[in-house]
Amino acid sequence: MKKCSYSAEREEILARAISPVAAELRLIDAGDLISLLKFEYYSSLSDLVDSAAELYFHPGTVYFGIGGDYKLDWDTYPSITLDLEIKPKGVTIYAQLLLAKDHACVNINYINFQNPSSDPNENTAFLADSLRHAAFYRNTDVTAMNVAH
After folding, report:
1. 40-59 pLDDT per residue, tens
2. What is the pTM (predicted TM-score) of this model?
3. DSSP 8-state class, residue 26
4. Would residue 146 count as lying in a domain?
5. Phi and psi (nearest 5°) for 107?
């Protein structure tokens, strides 16, 4: 997604909303996630994302996307990137969730509002409200998540 003045705010809103899901996914051994990506066991990855998301969001809100990636070298800690589709009411977000040793990051690739306003600030407020209504858990702490720029 081409970054604009309101992209960072939207990524921060999304990061805050999905941080508990990221924390759940970070409990899974990195080697297991990497092997699932390497051997393209996407249905298993989808099940893991669904299981993590069902604790915090209404059904049908967070999905595993079309794939992911990983970085694994001899002299560094592994990192895993998972493609996610987040679909609260009225919005579809295509994002990448990066899971690393001590943190997680989110990067929005594309966002589609079903009934967009001509005012980007109204769209951003709608995004925050939609994510808040889709969640079981109200998280206000962003310490576990960073926003990728």
Report:
1. 999 999 999 999 999 999 99
2. 0.89
3. T
4. no
5. -135, 120
Domain count, the chain: 1
Please state, in angstroms and rounded to a whole number, the distance separating the CA atoms of residues 65 and 10.
19
Which residue in 108, 99, 37 sits closest to 67, CA to CA? 37
With beta carbons less than 8 A apart as the criterion, state whether 12 and 120 touch: no
Rounded-to-integer distance, Cα 27 and Cα 52, Å: 10
Q: Is residue 103 part of a domain?
A: yes
Q: Name the one residue in this structure whose structure tokens are 């409200």.
A: 129
CB count in 10 Å sphere of residue 111: 20
Answer whether residue 137 is part of any domain: no
Strands 79-86 and 91-99: antiparallel
Q: Tell me, what amino acid is at 103?
A: H
Which residue type sits at 57? F
Q: Which H helix or E strand runs over 74?
A: none
Tell which phi-psi region holds residue 73, choosing left (phi > 0), alpha (psi between -120 and 50) or beta.
Answer: beta
